[in-house]
Amino acid sequence: MFREWLIFAAVSWCQDAAQQRPAHTGRIVIRGVAVVDVDKGVLIENQDVVIRGENVEAIVAGDSFSAGDEDEIVDGSSRFLIPALVDAHVHFADPQNFAEMCLVHGVTLVRDLGGETGQVLKNRADLESGAMLGPQMLVTGAILDGKPPIWPFSRVCNSAEEAAANADYLIEQGVDQVKVYSMLKSEAHAAIIETAHSLGVLAVGHVPVSVTLEEAIERGQNEVQHLTGFGDCLGRLAGRKRAADYVQDFSNLDAFEELTSEQYAPLFAKIKAAGMAQCPTLIVYQSMATMLDPKVDEDPRLQCIAPYIHSFWKSGRYEFAKYAGEIVPVMQKIVKALHEAEVPLICGSDLANAYVFPGESLHQEMALFQEAGIAPAEALRSATIRPCRHFGIEDRLGSIAAGRTASLVLLGRNPLEDVRNTQAIEAVFLRGRYLSRTALDDLQEGVRRRVKAIEAEFPRR
């Protein structure tokens, strides 16, 4: 099934030449827009934002910039400008379609957290060069896992020596970060983190079943996905036995409801002190829960999902589905408590998993943060400046300032009032390239046509 998925995915990797637009020779001026300062969580009203090439050239008081004949004017009045969004957890299993749908939804930076190394490096290069239209990309390449690995595109690390060698190999190949996974032995996990740090690379991913969350903190794991390790740790704080596997780790998250803040506060303080970021991916579990709905395959968004991706979603790998809907509210409470403890939170969707839709699901993740009791400005930070700081690229991306990359989203509604307003997209700027609402609609229609053509040859099952 997985092999078939990858073979079929190759059909959509070609970039449509008709979508390429010549570079704009003048500047682009967004007139009279309210700029969202994501750091301070405030609006700076009536600004002219000047873009030259790929960068923001200047931000000046509205109507004070003298535009030239070759400059393109974009009306920003009664609109809101935010830094473009970051999806910190994707798997680009259908590169072109996923890339374009991310742009449609204002996502101009993604982090691919696991795939065949050569392919994800090619995707990153094609996106960076413009050979494929879509967001910029950071990659981990192959997942580093134990024996047997959970995913076939993993590199097996059955000892500390193998683990160090595999981490070193991936970093030599040019990955941006390395990803540790659930089946690693404790000594292999430690060796990967030590190797990554010695080479100046972040070690991110799952807390393996063999490792406690406390050990992952002490070893300096830089980031945790899906709150892995938390169920085991919180369960032990509540008097439960050590989790035997990753399913039990997940189901034990409900132990949080048995604890007082005095019981979990020391743990969360250690996480904050270590600077260990959390990417909870609430939306992937909420999306898995929809698999139990008999009408799930009537969702019109499937028109933009290739049949081989849809088949993978229906392949039966999702043993979490029966727990997922029940556990999301508990995860939201944990996320709120982590936020109150000042633990860095970043938004990711885990795109490629069941009923997680490219681009749109990131907006849903921010909304789940807000529903958990996190302020709209803070939810927005978790999908803009905070991941960029965590990745060490905040000098280029994640906020709006002169000299920064002009990857921006123009909104029709104020996201500081309600983070769901990030979905009111009127235009996207990708490294200075202006994509109007019409251009975004055309992109989405192109994806629909492409998916329909694939479906004619490979019908959905």
Blueprint of the fold:
Blueprint: H1 2-9, E1 27-37, E2 42-52, E3 55-61, E4 72-75, E5 80-83, E6 85-90, H2 95-104, E7 107-112, H3 117-129, E8 136-139, E9 144-145, E10 155-156, H4 160-173, E11 177-180, H5 186-198, E12 202-205, H6 213-219, E13 223-225, H7 230-237, H8 246-251, H9 261-274, E14 277-279, H10 282-289, H11 307-313, H12 321-340, H13 360-371, H14 376-381, H15 385-391, E15 408-411, E16 425-430, E17 433-436, H16 437-457
If you had to describe this structure to a student in words, what would you say it looks like?
There is one protein chain. By secondary structure, the chain is α/β, with parallel strands linked by helices. Helix content is 38%, strand content 18%. It contains 16 helices and 17 strands. It has helices at residues 2-9, 95-104, 117-129, 160-173, 186-198, 213-219, 230-237, 246-251, 261-274, 282-289, 307-313, 321-340, 360-371, 376-381, 385-391, 437-457; strands at 27-37, 42-52, 55-61, 72-75, 80-83, 85-90, 107-112, 136-139, 144-145, 155-156, 177-180, 202-205, 223-225, 277-279, 408-411, 425-430, 433-436. Strands 1, 2, 3, 4, 5, 15, 16 and 17 form an eight-stranded mixed β-sheet that branches. Helix 6 (213-219) links the parallel strand 12 and strand 13 (223-225). Helix 2 runs antiparallel to helix 16, helix 4 runs parallel beside helix 5 (186-198) and helix 10 (282-289) packs antiparallel against helix 12. The radius of gyration is 22 Å and the shape is globular. The two termini are 12 Å apart. The relative contact order is 0.16. Mean pLDDT is 93; it is low at 1-24.
